[in-house]
Amino acid sequence: AKTVTRNDDGVATVGGIEVTRLAEEFGTPAYFLDEADFRARCRAWADAFGKDADVFYAGKAFLSRAVVKWLHEEGLNLDVCSGGELTTALDAGMPADRIAFHGNNKSPEEIERAVRVGVGRIVLDSFQEIVRVAHVAQSLGKRQRVQIRVTVGVEAHTHEFIATAHEDQKFGIPLAGGQAAEAVRRALQLDGLEVIGIHSHIGSQIFDTSGFEVAAHRVVGLLKQIRDEHGVELPEIDLGGGLGIAYTPDDDPREPHDIAKALNEIVTRECEAARLRTPRISVEPGRAIVGPTAFTLYEVGTIKPLEGLRTYVSVDGGMSDNIRTALYDAEYSVALVSRRSDAEPMLSRVVGKHCESGDIVVKDAFLPADLAPGDLIAVPATGAYCRSMASNYNHALRPPVVAVADGGARVIVRRETEEDLLRLDVG
Ligand code: LLP
Predict the structure, then answer these.
(1) How far apart are alpha carbons 287 and 243 in whole angstroms?
(2) Less Cβ crowding at N or C end of the chain, within 10 Å?
(3) Mean pLDDT of the chain
(4) Can you give the CATH number for the domain in which 174 is found?
(5) What local confidence, expressed as pLDDT, does residue 3 receive?
(6) Containing domain of residue 343, as a range?
(7) Is 118 helix (H, G, I), strand (E, B) or coil?
(8) The pLDDT of residue 163
(9) Domain match, 265 and 381 both
(10) CA nearest 38: which of 346, 420, 384, 282?
(11) What is the mean pLDDT of residues 404-417?
(12) Are residues 119 and 230 in the same domain?
């Protein structure tokens, strides 16, 4: 988070509160989220795109009722991809017309509920879904606003599991072979649907804007084809999320302003050339808003030096609160935050307490050689896809999320308890 500094004793403080105090009050492991930073990032996105565009925060990165309220207050919209996320959004007061509903296999119940409550758009991901949503809308006497998600065939330079616009993966309808154009043609014929635009999401943790530019270019090409063939000018395009953040000092991410500028320029230029009305643009950043706003605080438990290799530092959490290192080979950094140390750096690997050797939080890190059990260490940039992908592996209790703001801290998602675990176990 932006506001982490050190006091005279070398203790890190966030929002003016020492991490040692946070650990005492809230326990470890725990995620601490800087509310002011979250809100500032929302505003940065809204300002970068301006009033002729819409920013939808991608709830999958991290969603809670407090987050929904902040988004609402900052004027952002929300992208949800499950009934559970929809429930959280509505419960916390997000107006339905500011919600986009996603997913490649929405259940009949999810579709019906989304249409019934009147979500602002459903993003259709397959030919079956075009028919299903049209049918539900019609039977409810409604016309549902929809976008058609297409795959533009861009190779985003990111981990294979989080890239989504190349051909051989499950999302969207390929532009290739005229499939996407055919999907739009079918959707336009159905009374239950109001086709408002085309959606493209090329992947996640992307540093290079060129992939977005190619996607925008191809989406505009499809708009032109639709206009030429059906005489319809679709009014909106959504270019998804995916902007990368800095996990380590080596990462050099783009700013919302960079991507807004690149996208606006290319869309405006190409629409003018094709004599198309410039569509309203929307984007769906998740990681770039919430990722940098939080860190995970752990307590060091055991320390095991392996001669000639490295020192294994075990913390009180692990792959159950951050699966990203194991799943994507993700890089993180780590720092001793409960005191100052001038000891020599020691090559370390921060590992969790789970029963497998892949339970790694930070693969390679330098921690001071005088590190001791009881020290607190912090892993920054864990706001996105850590709590939201947390698990109960080994019956771990998922950590709380604590929002820190203006010298105060409050729990927004509480720590799980053993009673929570037992409550689900009804055998
Ligand atoms: N829109 C759509 C349709 C998406 O599928 C996603 C992410 C986003 C927006 C937001 O992307 P972001 O701005 O956060 O990159 N669990 C992985 C990331 C999966 C991303 C899934 N979709 C990770 O931890 O890296």
Answers:
(1) 7
(2) C
(3) 95
(4) 3.20.20.10
(5) 66
(6) 4-33+292-424
(7) coil
(8) 64
(9) no
(10) 384
(11) 94
(12) yes
Kindly state the helix (H) or strand (E) to which residue 362 belongs, with its residue range: strand 360-368
pLDDT at 158: 64
Is residue 219 a contact partner of residue 152, using CB atoms and an 8 Å limit?
A: yes
DSSP string, 271-316: HHHTT-PPPEEEE--SHHHHGGGEEEEEEEEEEEEETTTEEEEEES
Residue 47 lies in a domain: no
Q: What share of the chain is helix, strand, coil (3-state, %, to 5)?
A: 35, 25, 40
Residues 199 and 281 in one domain: yes
What is the reported pLDDT for 168?
A: 80
The structural domain count of the chain equals 2
On whether residue 53 sits in a domain, the answer given is no
Tell me, in angstroms, the distance from the centre of ligand 1 to residue 199's CA: 14
ipTM, two decimals, is 0.99
Ligand 1 close to Cβ of residue 242 (< 6 A): yes
User: Which residues 6+ apart lie within 8 Å of 8 measured at CB?
Assistant: none
- The secondary element (H helix, E strand) that includes residue 39 is helix 35-49
Section 75-88 average pLDDT: 98
- Residue 58 Cα to ligand 1 midpoint, Å, equals 7
Ramachandran region, residue 27 (left: φ > 0; alpha: ψ -120 to 50; beta: rest): left
Question: Is residue 275 domain-shared with residue 313, that is, in the same domain?
Answer: no
pTM: 0.97
Task: Using the mean position of ligand 1's atoms as its centre, give its distance from the Cα of residue 228 in Å.
Answer: 33
- Domain-terminating residue out of 261, 285, 309: 285
Strands of the sheet containing 12-14, edge to edge, are 4-6, 12-14, 17-18
- For the annotated catalytic residues, the residue numbers are 355
Of 285, 304, 327, which residue is a domain's last?
285
Q: Residue 48: pLDDT above 70? A: yes
Instruction: Report the relative pairing of strands 173-174 and 99-101 from DSSP bridges.
Output: unpaired
* Per-residue tokens: 260: 């807004």
Q: Which pLDDT score, from 0 to 100, does residue 169 have?
A: 85
Mean pLDDT of the region 272-290: 97
CB of residue 241 inside a 6 A radius of ligand 1: yes
Q: Is the pLDDT of residue 356 over 70?
A: yes
The residue whose CB lies within 8 Å of the most ligand 1 atoms, and thus the one to mutate among 38, 60, 237, is 60
CA separation for the pair 226, 72 (Å, rounded): 34
